[in-house]
Amino acid sequence: MVLVVGGADGGVLREISRHSSVELFNICEIDQMVIDVKLAIGFEDPRVRLHVGDVAEFLRHVPEGKYDAIIIDSSDPVLLRSSWSDHSLRRALRPGGVPCNMAESMWFHTHLIQDMIFICRETCKGSVHCAWASVPTYPRYYLAVT
User: Fold this and answer.
1) Active-site residue, from 9, 54, 73, 115
2) Is 31 a catalytic residue?
3) How far is it, in rounded angstroms, from Cα 56 to Cα 54?
4) H helices of 17-144, where?
5) Which terminal residue of the chain, N or C, has fewer Cβ atoms less than 10 Å from its own Cβ?
């Protein structure tokens, strides 16, 4: 099971839906208007369960170890840091689960990336692998923890 935090444009959902091994994926998005615009496909997949609201509140009700992967497609680094630091994301992952999140531009937001790497290492107690991709409208840096 996969959780997508943010990602209302549907791009991440579109990519997840290409994998038949994923039986169910939840998306938690705070902004219904972004969903209504539907810039990308993915919401039509019958495996998608949409939850509109605050991710912190959503995670309070998630059973421990529910998700195999959590993909955070949000441009809010404060949300990412607070979700990691209060351990709610880690609690929602099964042992060996993989979280992945955007972490701002590696050219302009090095301090934010350093903070998130530190928080990920402290919270997940695993190795933190970093990769980056230049996307014209979203120059972001992604972290994957294993």
Assistant:
1) 73
2) no
3) 6
4) 32-37, 55-60, 77-85, 88-92, 110-124
5) C
- Could you report the average pLDDT of every consecutive run of 10 residues in the chain (146 residues)? 86 88 90 72 85 87 92 70 66 84 72 77 71 61 56
Q: How far apart are CA 95 and CA 49, in angstroms?
A: 23
Token output for 34: 């972004």
pTM: 0.78
Residue 103's domain comprises 2-145
- The CATH number of whichever domain residue 37 belongs to comes to 3.40.50.150
For 113-117, which contacts have Cβ atoms below 8 Å and span 24 or more sequence positions? 113/141, 115/81, 116/77, 116/80, 116/81, 116/84, 116/143, 117/143
So what's the pLDDT on residue 145?
Answer: 61
